[in-house]
Amino acid sequence: MRKLKLEELGRVSIPAFREQEKLPVVIVLDNIRSMHNVGSVFRTADGFAVEAIVLCGITGQPPHREIEKTALGATHSVAWTYEEDTVTAVNRLRKAGYQLIAIEQAENSTMLNHFQPDMDQKYALIFGNEVNGVSDEVMKLIDTCLEIPQFGTKHSFNIVISAGIVLWDVFSKLNIKKD
């Protein structure tokens, strides 16, 4: 077996990426501390062609050397905005027709493997701070909460891993429904 060369991957240009159909998802980053995590979420968002990222509170913003180190240019392809207050951001997304979903361990959460996204719905996936998770103020506003099943001794995944798992799940379930 031979690995493909970069020129064989058929990657789209940034202008073509901006015009292509997107996964009906906006990622909301609620006070993410690590610039490397922010950059990695950008790169993951590019890989799944999400609509946009909303950076909130203390979450770092491009251009920033540490974000770019892990984003590898995805800050130029993925649309993003900044909102000082996460509550304001999620209220704006609700008004725009997005279902608000926290990725969190909470009472009455839905296990990710039981979540069935609807092709006609837009989603705002809210990922919280590395220590404190999604803020209590935002948790009061969400429509539902998804929890990633875990079976080991640790109580959480890194935010980037969580974003990758959830985006893959939503992407694969929506694409399966298209076929």
Describe the protein in words.
With 179 residues, this protein is of the alpha/beta class. It has one domain: Alpha/beta knot (3-Layer(aba) Sandwich). Helices cover 36% and strands 22% of the residues. The chain is built from 7 helices and 7 strands. The chain has a 7-stranded parallel β-sheet with strand order 3-2-1-6-4-7-5, with helices on both faces. Helix 2 packs parallel to helix 3 and helix 2 packs parallel to helix 7. The radius of gyration is 16 Å and the shape is globular.
Largest sheet: 7 strands, parallel
CATH architecture: 3-Layer(aba) Sandwich
Report low-confidence residues grouped into runs of 5 or more: none
Which strands sit side by side, in order, in the main sheet?
3-2-1-6-4-7-5
Query: Approximately how much helix is present in the residues?
Result: 25-40%
Quantity of strands, as a count:
7
Strand proportion: 15-25%
CATH fold assignment: Alpha/beta knot
User: Could you tell me the radius of gyration in angstroms?
Assistant: 16 Å
Gross morphology is globular
Helix segment count?
7
CATH class equals: Alpha Beta
Cα end-to-end separation:
29 Å
Average pLDDT? 96
